[in-house]
Amino acid sequence: MIALFISGCSNKEPSAKEKANETVNKVKTSETSEEKQQIASSSTELTPPEGLKLKADNEGIVPASIEIPALNVNTEIEKVGRMGNGQMGVPKGFDTVGWFGEGAKPGSPGNAVMAGHVDSKTGPAVFYKLEDLDKGDEVIVKDNDGKPLTFVVTGKEKYDRKNAPVDKIFDYSYGSKLNLITCTGNFNRDEGTHEERLVVYTELKNR
Asked: Does domain 40-204 bear CATH number 2.40.260.10?
């Protein structure tokens, strides 16, 4: 007699307990995916270094608005901080820009950092065309009194969202710089975010 053993296949109906476990696992997977997407939609997914090096007086302005003439952008600035996981938050609005308030102020020595959405479920957002900026383009930031500071684009880089050089982006540097962040690259549906981050580097224009 020849016995045949077929591994990995079964016609046996799953028990009620097995069906229940399967349902629970599906729910957990769905919840995990939703949690990831909530985090992705409310943060830059970049974690600023702890203990950022700032000048004692952290001179500069508290930014209230930003204008990018080359992109026809002129909008308000929201102050954002860290999320519970340490990542930099993003503005609540899709047409506004978020300034990382724990970092340098625009005009102060160091890296001031701002972020904006690239798109939403209904279409383009404030930084949809950020990648179109070229060296020499201007970014104008004003405080509540209308005092302007003009920054000039010096370069732009794309980074994997999990391996961006956060020290370079957020921490102290000589000169007054302003770094603009948005999403770019392929969209990861499971994570609810784009795979890369675009950073546009600018420096305060000599008066």
From this structure: yes
Q: Answer yes or no: are the C-beta atoms of 173 and 36 closer than 8 Å.
A: no
DSSP string, 65-110: EEEEGGGTEEEEEEEE-B-TTS-BB--SSSSSEEEETTSPPTTSSE
* Helix, strand, coil fractions of the chain, as percent rounded to 5: 20, 35, 45
Domain boundaries, the chain: 40-204
Reading the chain (207 residues) residue by residue, the pLDDT tens digits are 333 222 233 344 555 545 445 544 444 444 455 655 555 557 899 999 988 888 666 689 999 999 999 999 999 999 999 999 999 999 999 999 999 999 999 999 999 999 999 998 899 999 999 999 999 999 999 999 999 999 999 999 999 999 999 999 999 888 999 999 999 999 888 878 889 999 999 999 986
- To which H or E segment does residue 126 belong? none
